[in-house]
Design goal:
This protein is an all-alpha fold and about 325 residues long. It has one domain (about 10-320). The protein is about 65% helix and about 0% strand. The chain has 13 helices and two strands; from the N terminus they run ααββααααααααααα. Helix 2 packs antiparallel against helix 3, helix 2 (about 25-50) packs across helix 7 and helix 8 crosses helix 10. The relative contact order is 0.16.
Length: about 325
């Protein structure tokens, strides 16, 4: 006998990457979702461009917070979540498969999502500085510049101690706080788009969703976000990054049978991404690193993503998924 609790659990269960014919993809719903997500975010990108862009020319809204930041954090980043809701409402799909129910037996995937990204991120920065030692600043002079401290002025705390505090905060409270913002993206990309593409097969679904996620960033990249010196090449670099990051986030989503591991993993990436910039000097190209959005900075994440695509059975086609 099936209980009401079991029925509710089945309705919220996340699909598996079983793979099937391409015709089983609900392309109308996929198209509407992408239209809503891109329409909202790219319209906000136009508004940001018309109101001073990303930087000091954007008007201040309150307490030193600029308009571009408010628009991006609220409307732009939450457009995928809004697209999820709008698509379900317009198509009459209903609210099955939201992937919001926390599942205690999958708690370890929450921990994996919290811990693995910082490890890969800091490893990537280490590789970058090993290849380009001229960009490594062990004195952390950038910390003093950030605080507006002139040469000869004593800091109340050593730069290395401040960097350690910043890293500990990034690994803990900052990751938790960032979950609020990353939910806006993950409730769309991993909770809606990825399941809709799974009939293509797990590998193709996670790669295609990663490409779409990257292109969604393009207005911000063109405006100078992440790659201010090379926005056009940065647009391609962002797609590369979202593909490799999307493999990891898709993996923890499918393993954890919930969107929350992806929310946490995305938040861990965002919270820790800027720490290694404290050790940087001489303005290296953001296309390379040391941040995780650089090609070298993301190298460990890319290697791990390839390993997951090859080895993890959540991405396997039907012929091998049962093994």
């Amino acid at each position: 006998m099936t209980t009401s609790k079991t029925k509710r659990s089945d309705r919220d269960a996340f699909p598996t990457a079983t793979g099937s014919e391409d015709g089983d993809v609900e392309w109308r719903r996929v198209g509407l979702f992408v239209l809503f997500a891109f329409g909202i975010s790219w319209t906000i990108g136009v508004i940001v461009s018309m109101t001073g862009g990303i930087g000091s020319e954007s008007p201040t809204v309150f307490a030193g917070v600029r308009l571009w930041f408010v628009l991006v954090v609220t409307g732009y980043m939450f457009s995928p979540a809004i697209a999820n809701v709008l698509t379900r409402f317009v198509t009459g799909e209903g609210w099955d498969g939201l992937a919001l129910r926390p599942r205690r037996r999958h708690w370890r995937w929450w921990a994996v999502a919290w811990v693995v990204p910082p490890v890969l991120l800091y490893l990537g920065a280490t590789i970058f500085f090993a290849l380009f030692p001229e960009f490594f600043d062990p004195t952390l002079s950038a910390v003093g510049e950030t605080l507006g401290v002139t040469q000869g002025t004593e800091l109340p705390i050593e730069p290395r101690e401040l960097a350690l505090i910043a890293a500990m905060a990034a690994l803990t409270i900052n990751t938790a706080v960032n979950c609020v913002a990353t939910f806006g993206e993950e409730f769309g990309w991993r909770a809606y788009l990825l399941p809709k593409l799974l009939p293509l097969g797990g590998r193709r679904a996670v790669l295609l969703s990663g490409v779409i996620w990257g292109v969604w960033h393009w207005p911000l990249i063109v405006l100078g976000y992440n790659y201010p010196e090379t926005p056009l090449l940065g647009s391609l670099a962002m797609v590369y990054f979202t593909v490799v990051a999307g493999v990891f986030l898709g993996w923890v989503t499918l393993r954890g049978n919930s969107v929350w591991p992806a929310v946490i993993g995305h938040a861990a990436i965002n919270a820790n991404a800027g720490i290694m910039l404290l050790f940087t000097q001489n303005d290296p190209s953001r296309l390379l690193g040391p941040a995780v959005t650089g090609v070298i900075g993301s190298l460990p994440l890319a290697v791990f993503a390839v390993w997951l695509l090859v080895r993890s059975n959540v991405f396997s086609p039907p012929s091998s998924s049962s093994s």
